[in-house]
Amino acid sequence: MIRIVTLSPFDEGDIAFLSKTLYRSFGVGTENAGERSLPRKAEQPDGRFDALKLLEDASPVRAFADDKLLYLTDVELANPKGPLGEPPAWGHAVQGGDRALVSTFRFKPRGVTEASIEIYRRRLTRESIHFLGHLWDLHHCYDARCAMHPSWSPALPDDPEFELDAFCRDKSERRIRLAKT
After folding, report:
1. Among candidates 160, 91, 72, 171, which has minimal Cα distance to 119?
2. Which pLDDT value is given to residue 180?
3. What is the C-alpha to C-alpha distance for residues 91 and 73, in angstroms, rounded to an integer?
4. What are the two backbone dihedrals, phi and then psi, of residue 161, each rounded to the nearest 5 degrees?
5. pTM value?
6. Model pLDDT for residues 79-132, shown as the tens digit of each residue
7. For every residue of 21-55, which 3-state class applies, written as one string?
8. Where does 2-177 sit in CATH, by number?
9. 8 near 39, Cβ under 8 Å?
10. Which pLDDT value is given to residue 169?
């Protein structure tokens, strides 16, 4: 089960679209677990939120052993620095863990037209599939059409595909079938 938790206000239609698409992508149930408050302890002096600390301090949600928690927010995130510096942050997930975080801060504005809403929803879905994929031990994919292609890639369009390629889909399905519950 994927439990979606919002840490900022989100449109119900966006969450419904996301939920339906996550079910189609992973074949497991999804549930909107409601809104929780944003953990202010994760805020840094520069106003960004430490993605790791935010995931650690987020309010717990009733979940079972193999459930995955997807936290959604609209705040600017800061990821830990790597050997090449700090990567841009669309979200965070610990490889093989149980919690993922996606921020809409770097998205183009949602807008009010059907076209802009569709693009926003597709990007939200793409980033959610990407970070949930890391929870099922998927790594970045070279195929720019795959949802596991890095979010920071210059090859990624503003309105990207949000499906997994055949290799990533097979790998995620194997991991899901091996789950304990």
Report:
1. 160
2. 58
3. 9
4. -65, 155
5. 0.91
6. 888 888 888 889 999 899 999 999 999 998 888 999 999 999 999 999 999 999
7. HHHHHHCCCEEEEEECCCCHHHECCCCCEEHHHHH
8. 3.40.390.10
9. no
10. 85
d(Cα 113, Cα 40) in Å, to the nearest integer?
Answer: 33
145: exposed, middle or buried (Cβ count in 10 Å: 0-12, 13-18, 19+) = middle
* Count helices and strands in the chain by DSSP H and E runs: 4, 7
* N-to-C CA span, the chain: 10
Q: Which residue in 58, 137, 57 sits closest to 97, CA to CA?
A: 137
Do 164 and 129 contact (CB within 8 A), yes or no?
Answer: yes
Q: Is the pLDDT of residue 157 over 80?
A: no
Residues ≥6 apart with Cβ < 8 Å to 37: 7, 59
Residue 181 has pLDDT above 70, yes or no: no
Q: What angle do CA 29, 152, 79 make, to 5 degrees?
A: 80
